[in-house]
Amino acid sequence: MSNNKLIVIDDEEIILRQFKFFFGRKGYEVFTASKGEDGLALLKEHDPDLMILDLHLAEGVQGVDILKQALEFKPGLKVAIHTGFGNDKDAVDMCLKMGAKVVLPKPITLDILKEELDKLQKM
Amino acid sequence: MNTFAIAGISCGISCMILALITLAFGRLKIHRLLAFFNIAVAIWGFGGFIVGIANNEPTAIFGWKFAHIGGMFVSILFFHLVCIFCTIHRRWLLIFGYLQAIVFNFISWIPDKLITKARFVYGLYYNDATIVFSLAVFSYVLLVSLSFWELLNFLKESKGFKREQALYIIFGFLCGFVGGTSTFLPEFKIDFLYPFGNFGIVLYSLIVTYAILRYRLLDINIALTRAGIFAIVYTLVLGIPFWFGIKTGLWVYSTIIMAVLATTGPFAFIYLSRKAEARFLKEERRAHELLKQASRGMIHIHSKKKLLDLIDHITTKTLKLDNAEVFLLDENSGSFKLSAVRFRSKYQYSEIISNDDTLIQKLSTMEEPLVYEEVKLKKQELENEPNDRIHEIESQMRRLKAAIIVPAISNGRLVAFLALGEKTSKRMYSQEDLSTLWALSYQAALAIDNAFLYEKEKMRLAEQSRRQALADMAPGASHQFNNRLTTISVTADNLLDLVKNDAHNFSKEQLMDTVSEELEIIKGEVAKGKQITAAILQKAQVKLEFDKVDITKVIQNAINLTRLRRTRESLGGAKAPEFVFNYPNDLPLLTLCEGTMQDVFENMFNNAYDAIVIHGKRKIEPLPYQGKITITISRKDNSVIIVVEDNGIGIQKDNLHKLFTELFTTKATAEKGVVGGSGLGLAVMRSFVEGHGGTITVDSEYTKWTRLTITLPIDFKPSKQ
User: Fold this and answer.
1) What is the DSSP letter of B389?
2) Best to test chain B binding among A8, A11, A18, A92 (most B CBs inside 10 Å)
């Protein structure tokens, strides 16, 4: 059973806002970052067990690199990859190989997202 | 047979021939009149012949009477001829002239009134003038002088072919009249010269036949020079041996000398006339040389506009013309559009001649330039056939103020034509002018065809690159659009969940505030989604219309589209480039083709982006390297200056000057595997900017920066194409 801390890295401020609001109501402690560097800093500071990571960020370090660094820092971190590219198979496969637990294609409903996250938390 | 008889018979025969020729080939009133005139002169000649061979006084008197039947009509027929040639109306003088001819002729056949007795002089029975005869001679001199007076007045006003023709006619008639009239002298007992003047009439008949019947007259200066040289050469060729023979009596040697000289004569003549003409026509030769040079260089010019301006400029300048216009084929409509103008006082740049115009149809079949004077002559000949197309051609040429029209035909297709005005000197176009212009038009046609192809290729490339751009944009754009859908969907989910499951944890007011806040977010996202679809649609359209446009919007769109296109690019650890856009608030609207200019900017930003990506991948800068594309607009005088600078890889000095000459970007080959060169070539970009009356320059420091500067005029007026 993981802790209830969740970190969301996504360059869409609205996504961050909605996830924080939603998962906040559902009993998670949510940290958000729109840049990879900030997300990694939060990871180191708060040590959450769960992460939702957008593969493509508008600025700075990109998803695959973030995943790599995050898993290096915390090998047991349960990461859900959130991606908008159905055809971006290579990057997704690489993430799964590296240790990401699940891939959530965009657009996703919050119900499914919560289900998946709850499953991860219970792992 | 004496000289007087020979002169008489040659004059009679040559004028009779001339009369027959003019009757056979001429169709105008002036030709018929010329025929009558020549018959009159021929009668004069034959009369002279009778006088020449007469061995008693009564026969000679008959000869004189016969001669004067013609002689008395000569003056008035000449005057009548001049009236028609110069298009002047002298009704009363004509009536008087014909009356005096009839009256004097009537009198002349009454015995002992006009021609009564002869004096034996020069071995001839020469008519002795009476008082009434002097009256007849007086009215003759009066009418002839009047005719020359009218001709000289006409010469001052005339131009081109008509002027040249007038010169010939004046010269020819002068030969004839000076010759013919000189034979009057012994009639008044003035005996200082043998009356051989009727030979002059033979000369007259040759010159005038040539001038009246030929459309293309040889420049009279050349004609006279040639004739003069001919006369001098052959006077010497025949004169020297003759003189030698007379002096020494050694006629055998004299004949040998003559034979030698006669063989060299033609060569001397050719050599001398060439020399003289070269000097005489120095200016013309130089002009033709310049035209030939220009036509050789034409094929290397790809811009239609530049090409046409060159043709227009070079012809007006070298041939010194009043005006010159070039009409170019519009490939879509098949019509011909005025595309270059020089020195035309009242020109309309929008002038278009449709392809079913008679002139265009005529030009397509021409194998030499169309000369207005010739068209006009043909029109006069066909005055009775008003449906003939020559009338339309004539009026069209007159409207265009074209002295000649030179068609440019390539592969059997008329691609352009050159309408040239009068020469400033009012001289006519020489045959050499015409053939040089024809050669020029041939080269021009090839060059224009080439430019058409080049333009088509350019359009095709632009179209291709536009499609490529759309294809490139699709993944990025759909990603962005999906992102909008995701945020909308997530926000809606969140709201639903809040209302269904968690509403009890919030106060009614809290709930209302949250709901409306989230709905606002959804609305905002929908608006963003619309922008994306609008951008895609806009990109897919090929719009080539000029409008008053806010340039900052065009640039902002290009920035957005570049971002859309490059969203998912892997940057190898470098930060995504950022755009910095500065502009003053008081920029005027510019007349632009929005789509085209947006292409230009997108292309520039893409290039800048590439430069930054390459720079980042080479890891020249310490990471994290922040690429930056800075766009700065400023205003200077009547221009807007847009500077686009990036801190990417830059361009090597050696390549800098090549950038605009290549049609294709070299990026793909230079950086294989790093960035594909899918954009428009800089040459195409430049042609777009130039199409807006602007300029584009590039400067760069390798490994540091690249700066492109576009200058656009504020008051640009696009030509309607």
Assistant:
1) H
2) A18
| DSSP classification of residue B365 | T
Residue B337 and residue B328 in contact, taking contact as beta carbons nearer than 8 Å: yes
**Which residues in chain B come in under a pLDDT of 70?**
213-222, 343-350, 466, 538-544, 567-574, 620-624, 657-658, 660-681, 683, 719-721
Residue range of the domain that includes A75: 5-122
Number of independent structural domains in chain A: 1
pLDDT at residue B127, rounded to an integer: 84
Residue A35 belongs to a domain with what CATH number? 3.40.50.2300
Asked if B327 contacts B347 with a C-beta cutoff of 8 angstroms, the reply is no
Under 8 Å between Cβ of B455 and B332: no
Cα B222 to Cα B273, B323, B582: the distances in Å are: 9, 26, 71
Contact A29, A42 (CB under 8 A): no
State the amino acid at position B309 in one-letter form: D
Q: Which value does ipTM take for this structure?
A: 0.88
Paired with B633 in beta bridges are B642
Q: CB A85 to CB B568 under 8 A?
A: yes
B472: its two tokens: 């490139």
Domain boundaries, chain B: 3-217, 218-280, 285-453, 543-721
C-beta of residue B551 within 8 angstroms of C-beta of residue B633 = yes
For domain B285-453, the question of CATH label 3.30.450.40 is answered with yes
- In this structure, which CATH number among 3.20.20.140, 1.20.1070.10, 1.10.645.10, 3.40.47.10 belongs to the domain B3-217? 1.20.1070.10
Mean pLDDT in order along chain A per 10 residues (123 residues)? 86 90 92 91 92 81 86 92 73 88 84 89 83
For residue B490, give the nearest of A15, A56, A58 by CB distance.
A15
Calculate how close chain A gets to B488, using CA atoms only, in Å. 9
Task: Name, in order, each residue with C-beta under 8 angstroms of B289's C-beta and a sequence gap of 6 or more.
Answer: none
A109/B571 CB distance under 8 A: no
User: CA gyration radius for chain B?
Assistant: 43
Window A:9-38, CB contacts with B under 8 Å: 12, 14-15, 17-19, 21-22, 25
Closest chain B C-alpha to A73 CA, distance in angstroms:
19
Specify the pLDDT at position B721: 43
Q: Please tell me the distance in Å from A11's CA to the nearest CA on chain B.
A: 10
Distances (CA, A) of B303 to A73, B306, B440, B453, B536: 63, 5, 17, 11, 32
State whether CATH 3.30.565.10 applies to domain B543-721: yes
Chain A residues touching residue B627 (CB < 8 angstroms):
none
